[in-house]
Amino acid sequence: MVVRQLIGGKLKSLRQAKNLTLKDVSEGTGISISMLSKIERAETTPTIDLVIRLAKFFNLSLGEMVGVKAEEDVVTKREDELLTMKTESGAIIRFLSRYSPDMKVDFFRLSIPPDSGFVREMSHPSWSYHVFFCEKGEGKFVLGDREFPFTKGDCISFSADRPHDAINTGTDELVLFGILIYRV
């Protein structure tokens, strides 16, 4: 099942089970009614931030929100088992760690095709922090009106509470390993 269908179905069933309107969920999460409607109809894949907001609103873990069952302390996942999201621009995010409210961190691999980028629709919560390591390719991060070029082996870290875009400026795939730390 596609991630957007899974999350859309989960959102709709949770909302209906609690007898809530889209307006109720919008007011509780800060997500627009139109975006919630698109998520429910599986017309868009929500960002991880939106999924986290929905999970918090419904008092669920991120894993429960995306249908991942509790696992053992030691987990081995094959590549095809990783939670994977693809953006309209062709960027692919693979979550390498399972989310746990106790961990407050996401570890992921972001691959961006040439002549493309990963553009954030919104910033992360003010208590979050990003660290990225460039495994392959070259690119730049755009943070507000400033640009930070990088290439293989470089690392960049910043407070994630501002708009930030990763742009592939090379001719090959850009591969970044990222950590998003939630300071809650």
Would you give an account of this structure?
By secondary structure, the protein is an alpha+beta fold. The protein has 2 domains: 3-65, 434 Repressor (Amino-terminal Domain), CATH 1.10.260; 79-182, Sandwich (Jelly Rolls). It is 24% helix and 32% strand. The protein has 5 helices and 10 strands, in the order αααααββββββββββ. It has helices spanning 3-17, 22-29, 33-40, 48-57, 62-65; strands at residues 84-86, 92-95, 105-112, 117-119, 128-136, 138-143, 146-151, 155-159, 164-168, 174-182. The strands form 2 sheets. The chain has a 6-stranded antiparallel beta sheet, with no helix packed on it. The protein has a 4-stranded antiparallel beta sheet with strand order 4-9-6-7, with no helix packed on it. β6 and β7 form a beta hairpin. It is globular, with a radius of gyration of 17 Å. The protein starts with a helix and ends with a strand. The model has no long low-confidence stretch (mean pLDDT 84).
CATH fold-level topology of the largest domain: Jelly Rolls
What share of residues are in beta strands? 25-35%
CATH class of the largest domain: Mainly Beta
Q: What is the assigned CATH homologous superfamily of the largest domain?
A: Jelly Rolls
The computed structural class is: alpha+beta
Q: Largest sheet, described in full?
A: 6 strands, antiparallel
* Low-pLDDT residue spans: none
State the helicity in percent bands: 10-25%
**Order of SSEs, N→C?**
HHHHHEEEEEEEEEE
Number of domains: 2
Computed over alpha carbons, the radius of gyration is: 17 Å
What is the global morphology?
A: globular
N- to C-terminal distance: 32 Å
* CATH architectural name of the largest domain: Sandwich
Average pLDDT number: 84
Q: Number of DSSP strands?
A: 10
Spatial order of strands in the largest sheet? 1-2-3-10-5-8
Q: So how many helices? A: 5
